[in-house]
Write a structure and sequence with these properties.
Layout: H1 5-13, E1 18-20, E2 27-31, H2 35-45, E3 54-56, H3 63-66, H4 71-84, E4 89-94, H5 101-104, E5 109-113, H6 118-127, E6 131-132, H7 147-154, E7 174-177, E8 184-187, H8 193-200, E9 231-235, E10 249-253, E11 265-267, H9 274-289, E12 295-299, H10 307-317
Parallel strand pairs: 3-5, 4-7, 9-12, 10-11, 10-12
Antiparallel strand pairs: 1-2, 2-6, 3-6, 4-5, 7-8
Helix pairs in contact: 1-6
The chain binds threonylcarbamoyladenylate and magnesium ion.
Threonylcarbamoyladenylate binds next to strand 4 and strand 5.
Length: about 325
């Protein structure tokens, strides 16, 4: 199941799939030129074919293998790549004909990012082809931030998993659509709307926090997504947590409590640092799932900086149990 970097390169070159680490979350990878492998990604994840994949490239010079770059779009892409690549930013661009329609779910645009993780970068160098990779989780479940998460949820279906340690960021990349007249954020991430608007010196349209299932712009952004198996409820950080205590209940705090008054308390960081919370949240939800709780109550951070992306993921994760939706 676990394999070396060279074995993963061999698998990808032979038209198979492999799970690879990135700085955001683990990805389930295939060559963009291997249609059967791309099909396999969708079937292994149980992902609907209407939900397009992200293409990973080594650097800006590869962009032009996949996307049509002209005028305003080129200027925007150059500025963003210079500032944020390699790193957790995905750009939506007009696609070149060589990009398989299966991969883009029939769209005329393609999502492209340049990952920062050294192992992924080494694999790109060795394969010398762009690599399609969605997050390596069963569709709708919490994204994997450790190789063991992939092994646990998809290990029976994925022969090659490269263990590159814990993903540094822990949340999926920010997705920015730069093809439209107005630049739009389709998914918040570690790179914030302010970072992007400061870089482009343009007004940016905010992502729609909950997008409907049939939304054609970003079909992967379902209202209900990233859900753990344990019933998840979101609570305010000022709520008195003792009201949520119970034998079958877990409580997730943003930071270590001063005194541990009740049992089944977990925390996402020592002192409430948002980057640490982002890094830990998906792992925490998977840990809770491996225990025997019926419900989990999780505090939500302020909506500033990466806090917005954390709240976006938490709100989707809790959507199926939210009353009066
Ligand atoms: O950090 C990440 O982006 C990770 C790592 C593995 O790179 N990948 C990831 O992929 O999160 P995935 O498939 O779980 O999420 C990709 C999202 C989906 O919501 C999909 O709908 C959207 O990107 N997407 C892909 N192509 C698109 C396009 N042409 N237009 C709009 N949205 C697109
Ligand atoms: Mg995903």
């Amino acid at each position: 199941m676990y394999c070396t970097l060279s074995e993963a390169v061999f698998a990808l070159k032979s038209g198979d799939i492999a799970a690879l680490p990135t700085e955001t979350v683990y990805g389930l990878a295939a060559s963009i030129f291997e249609e059967d492998a791309i099909r396999k990604i969708f079937s292994v994840k149980g992902r609907p074919l209407i939900d397009p994949l992200i293409v990973h490239i080594l650097d800006f010079s590869w962009l032009d293998r996949c996307a049509i770059l002209e005028n305003k779009i080129l200027t925007r892409a150059e500025k963003l790549a210079k500032k944020f690549w390699p790193g957790p930013l995905t750009m939506i661009l007009p696609k070149k004909p060589c990009i398989n329609d299966l991969l883009t779910a029939g769209k005329q645009t393609v999502a492209i990012r340049c990952p920062a993780h050294e192992i992924f970068r080494e694999i790109l160098k060795k394969t010398d082809f762009p690599i399609a990779a969605p997050s390596a989780n069963p569709f709708g479940y919490v994204s994997p931030t450790k190789a063991s998460h992939v092994a646990k949820t998809l290990g029976d279906k994925v022969k090659f998993i490269v263990d590159g340690g814990e993903c540094k960021v822990g949340l999926e990349s920010t997705i920015v659509d730069i093809c439209s007249n107005k630049v739009r954020i389709l998914r918040p991430g570690a790179i914030t709307i302010d970072d992007i608007s400061n870089c482009l010196v343009e007004e940016i349209e905010q992502y729609k926090s909950i997008v409907k299932e049939n939304d054609i712009d970003c079909p992967g952004q379902l209202a209900q997504h990233y859900s753990p198996k344990t019933q998840l409820h979101l609570i305010d950080k000022n709520d008195d947590v003792s009201q949520f205590c119970g034998k079958k209940n877990a409580i997730i705090l943003l930071q270590r409590p001063v005194n541990l008054s009740t049992e089944n308390i977990f925390w996402l960081s020592e002192a409430g640092d948002l980057n640490t919370i982002a890094h830990t949240i998906f792992d925490m939800l998977q840990t809770i799932d491996s225990m025997d709780f019926e419900q989990v109550f999780c505090q939500t951070p302020d909506n500033t900086g990466i806090g917005e992306a954390i709240n976006d993921r938490l709100s989707r994760a809790a959507a199926k149990w939210r009353k009066n939706r």
